[in-house]
């Protein structure tokens, strides 16, 4: 009787695994055939990148320079005419690399860290432009280019992944994506003029007026705009404004990431599982302690579960992981209730400078 129940349980786990988390070989082959048979030429992508980079290199400095020539902008923004064509060309090349890396990282971890690439780029271009207010404007322009390309790369990757699952044409998805990008180029300036009712044509690239809906205390205020501006101002001060040993830590992390990638590529397939993925490690470092702790606890639980019950772990780990994520999302309701009744959480952890003696 016990043996019969064990056989039934094994069959049920096998059926659940095959029905929920695996594709039939024929279906997978059909998906790959549809997705790869409608691919785009490599030279076409390179030509499109070159054309867009050339257009950005010509128009972006002209737009920033026209903004600096007006009398309605601040002195810091007026000095932003330091932006040069070669700045934009280098930013476009780095944006292509950041887009590939961000799409890869989002595919592995499902987290979009385009803002991290943008902030890192702002530090580089602010140091390149030199000290002064002009470096802040150059950092904002080039960082915005990095942010847009990196974020768009992740969106395109998500769209193509959905197209692979639904057996859609990759070319059709790409055309639809381009139509949406072109529409956003027209809608975004119109939305700015609609919300910032007091903005004149000369002041579109300038400061937001105090009575605008986009002001810091307005209805459509953007807190991230302040974060990026302060990052650009901090970067304009040079490496001395960074914390002590920050550059050495960054270079050390870069060397460790390259070494781990090289090690994973050289090891046999059976031994690659013991080497951590640098993309996943980097995302965890940038995502904050709450997500890092959740990932660590979940990974440890799955390792022990797989050692003890390998078949059930393969069948139900994804379902339980999704349930835990949904449960953590529901905790937002509890946090909202605590904030509504002005109740402080019993446990709090923070990192701050100790008071001077």
Core attributes:
mainly alpha; 73% helix; 13 helices
Can you walk through the features of this model?
This protein has 357 residues and is mainly α. It is built from 13 helices and no strands. It starts with a helix and ends in a 17-residue tail after the last helix. Mean pLDDT is 74; it is low at 11-17, 75-80 and 198-208.
Fold blueprint:
Blueprint: H1 2-20, H2 25-37, H3 42-69, H4 75-78, H5 85-109, H6 114-129, H7 133-166, H8 170-195, H9 223-236, H10 246-266, H11 278-287, H12 289-308, H13 310-340
Helix pairs in contact: 1-13, 2-7, 3-5, 5-6, 5-7, 6-7, 6-9, 7-8, 7-9, 12-13
Short description, anyone?
The protein is mainly alpha-helical and 357 residues long.
Strand-residue proportion: under 5%
* Secondary-structure content class: mainly alpha
Separate helix tally: 13
Largest sheet: none
Give the N-terminus to C-terminus distance in angstroms.
Answer: 73 Å
The general outline is globular
How many strands? 0
Helical amount = over 70%
How confident is the prediction overall: mean pLDDT?
74
- In angstroms, what is the radius of gyration? 25 Å
Order of helices and strands: HHHHHHHHHHHHH
Query: Low-confidence stretches at least 5 residues in length (pLDDT < 50)?
Result: 11-17, 75-80, 198-208
């Amino acid at each position: 009787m016990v043996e019969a129940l064990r056989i039934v349980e094994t069959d049920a786990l096998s059926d659940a695994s095959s029905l929920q988390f695996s594709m039939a070989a024929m279906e997978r082959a059909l998906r790959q055939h549809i997705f790869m048979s409608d691919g785009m030429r490599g030279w076409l992508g390179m030509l499109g990148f070159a054309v867009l980079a050339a257009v950005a290199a010509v128009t972006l400095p002209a737009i920033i320079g026209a903004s600096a020539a007006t009398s309605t902008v601040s002195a810091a923004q007026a000095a932003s005419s330091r932006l040069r064509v070669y700045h934009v060309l280098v930013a476009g090349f780095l944006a292509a690399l950041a887009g590939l890396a961000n799409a890869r990282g989002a595919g592995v971890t499902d987290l979009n860290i385009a803002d991290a690439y943008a902030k890192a780029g702002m530090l580089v271009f602010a140091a390149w432009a030199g000290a002064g207010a002009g470096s802040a404007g150059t950092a904002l322009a080039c960082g915005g280019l990095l942010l847009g390309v990196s974020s768009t790369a992740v969106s395109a990757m998500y769209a193509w992944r959905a197209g692979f699952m639904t057996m859609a044409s990759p070319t059709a998805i790409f055309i639809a994506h381009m139509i949406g990008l072109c529409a956003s180029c027209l809608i975004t300036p119109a939305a700015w003029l609609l919300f910032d009712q007091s903005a004149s044509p000369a002041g579109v690239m300038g400061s937001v007026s105090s009575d605008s809906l986009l002001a810091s205390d307005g209805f459509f205020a953007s807190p991230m705009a302040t974060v990026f501006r302060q990052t650009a101002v901090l970067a304009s001060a040079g490496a001395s404004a960074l914390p002590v040993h920050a550059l050495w830590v960054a270079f050390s992390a870069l060397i460790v990431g390259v070494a781990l990638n090289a090690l994973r590529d050289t090891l046999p397939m059976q031994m690659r599982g013991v080497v951590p993925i640098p993309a996943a490690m980097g995302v965890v470092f940038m995502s904050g302690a709450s997500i890092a702790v959740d990932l660590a606890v979940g990974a440890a639980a799955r390792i022990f579960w797989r050692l003890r019950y390998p078949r059930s772990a393969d069948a139900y780990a994804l379902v339980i992981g999704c349930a835990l994520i949904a449960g953590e999302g529901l905790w937002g309701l509890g946090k909202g209730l605590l904030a509504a009744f002005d109740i402080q959480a019993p446990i709090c952890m923070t990192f701050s400078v100790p008071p001077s003696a």
